[in-house]
Design brief:
Strand content: 15-25%
CATH superfamily: Aldolase class I
Number of domains: 1
Strand order of the largest sheet: 1-2-5-9-10-11
Order of helices and strands: HEHEEEHEEEEHEHEHEH
CATH architecture: Alpha-Beta Barrel
Radius of gyration: 16 Å
Shape: globular
Helix content: 25-40%
Number of strands: 11
Length: 198
């Protein structure tokens, strides 16, 4: 959700396009099934999985059992600290002790269908993507994974595809024309995906 008071709008969107959208933002066991029943293909969870800066694997298992592994996306958005990436929660303000690594992604992968990773340091800036993080995700993730953060042009779609050998998907936000941006036309992004058979 984009803040308080958006739940009704989210449900309306899900009902208008059943199975075509994912729901995220404040997801927990009390509301996850409601969003799935409203038409979400998946629910996206992040901050609820943490107690302060500590990742709670028991919460992950419980939520996965509730909604089903195949309908759960785990958001491990991160910020770079020295030479590694730490997961951040609470609107990307709270650093956790969980590091993005092959070990982390492997341990969580038994309980979800996909990963979502925002490069929080550059999210929304339209100043280019973090190719170091893209390469890390490509080598470390056993599941489908989507990277977000910094995309500014159609060239970024090509770069992520090439540098990850097609293992990492890119989501474009602020640069996309349907969101008021000028860097990427939605029709061109769709054409790129179709050229890959997506």
């Amino acid at each position: 959700m984009l803040g308080p008071g958006n739940e009704d709008a989210a449900r309306s969107a899900l009902e208008a396009f059943p199975g075509g959208l994912q729901a995220g933002g404040g997801i927990n066991p009390d509301n996850a099934l409601d969003y799935l029943r409203s038409g979400a293909s998946h629910v996206i969870v992040t901050s609820w999985l943490f107690n302060g800066d500590h990742f709670d694997s028991d919460k992950l298992v419980a939520l996965s059992n509730l909604v089903g592994r195949d309908r759960l996306v785990v958001d491990l958005s991160c910020r770079k600290v020295d030479d590694h990436y730490l997961v951040v929660t609470n609107r990307w303000q709270t650093f956790t002790s969980l590091e993005i690594s092959a070990r982390t992604l492997s341990s969580i992968s038994d309980y979800c269908a996909e990963f979502l990773i925002h490069a929080a340091d550059i999210e929304g800036l339209c100043q280019g993507i973090d190719l170091e993080l893209v390469e890390l995700l490509a080598s470390a993730s056993p599941l489908p994974i989507t990277y977000a953060g910094g995309a500014q042009s159609l060239d970024d779609l090509h770069s992520v595809h090439d540098r990850s050998a097609g293992r990492v998907d890119l989501t474009i936000g602020s640069a996309l024309d349907i969101f008021g941006g000028s860097g990427v036309r939605y029709t061109d992004a769709v054409a790129f995906n179709r050229s890959l058979g997506s």
